[in-house]
Specification:
This protein is mainly α. It folds into two domains: 17-61, Arc Repressor Mutant, subunit A (Orthogonal Bundle), CATH 1.10.10.60; 64-228, Tetracycline Repressor, domain 2, CATH 1.10.357. It contains twelve helices and no strands. The chain is elongated and about 60 Å long.
Length: 246
């Protein structure tokens, strides 16, 4: 069986294969925190997990793939954790603030780990970058959450903005993640404040975008990110392709 990023099956009890995969991933996360990403080898991970090196590579093709497994798990945990908020709230600001706060809650145990491997993920050519092709599964999951945020809000969204707004909201979340990585306040208090204020600003901006005169500005901001932010050209669809033919 080739290495993959799929989540465990739908059954309540994980299979032995799923348990082994989870054990390897948990062991890798612990060693990455203790020794650093660069100094941790697949052999060390296998030894600590009590499996053969070949078995470790059977589930994960390398350290980069382990990080992708971490991304996928974090995305799945976040999607599950926000379900109650999205089922309850109808205000766009409340929905988005809840989604961002919940991400901070879910990610809290991994803060020191995120600090350590950030220099690898910040490289636009690295497979660990959130904009890389390897990160597509987790990225699509995260953008999907923002699509749900918009779809369930009572705020009306212009049809031409329904595709680009979730992507812009995800980009703003990436900005929050970057701030959170370097946040040294007690309990990452400033990150939570940033999430609240960012959600308020986004809610107001989306409400204003119902005025046709402001919609081109939103599209232009999206094009700006897509054209110039490292990795975005490959990560998100070309906005020009969405424009109707003259």
């Amino acid at each position: 069986m080739p290495a993959n990023n799929e989540n465990p099956g739908d059954g309540d009890t994980p299979s032995k294969s799923e348990q082994t995969r989870a054990l390897i991933l948990e062991t890798a996360m612990r060693l990455f925190q203790e020794r650093g990403y660069d100094k941790t080898t697949m052999r060390a991970i296998a030894q600590e997990a009590g499996v053969s090196v070949g078995n470790a590579y059977y589930y994960f093709s390398g350290k980069e793939h382990l990080i992708q497994g971490f991304y996928d798990r974090l995305a799945a945990e976040h999607r599950e954790a926000v379900r109650e908020i999205l089922d309850r709230e109808t205000s766009l600001e409340a929905r988005l603030a809840g989604v961002l706060r919940t991400w901070l809650d879910v990610a809290t145990p991994y803060h020191e780990f995120a600090v350590q491997f950030f220099k690898n993920a910040a490289d636009p050519d690295s497979p660990l970058s959130p904009f890389s092709p390897e990160s597509e599964h987790a990225r699509v999951e995260a953008i999907g959450v923002h699509r749900e945020v918009l779809a369930g809000a009572r705020t009306k969204v212009a049809p031409e903005l329904r595709d680009v707004l979730p992507e812009l909201m995800w980009l703003s979340q990436m900005g929050l993640v970057l701030y959170w990585i370097f946040d040294r306040t007690e309990g990452r208090e400033r990150s939570y404040r940033l999430a609240e204020r960012g959600a308020r600003l986004t809610g107001r901006g989306v409400a204003l975008a119902r005025f046709r005169v402001l919609r081109p500005l939103v599209l232009e901001v999206h094009e700006l990110f897509t054209d110039f932010l490292p990795g975005m050209t490959k990560a998100l669809p070309d906005p020009a392709a969405r424009k109707p033919a003259p």
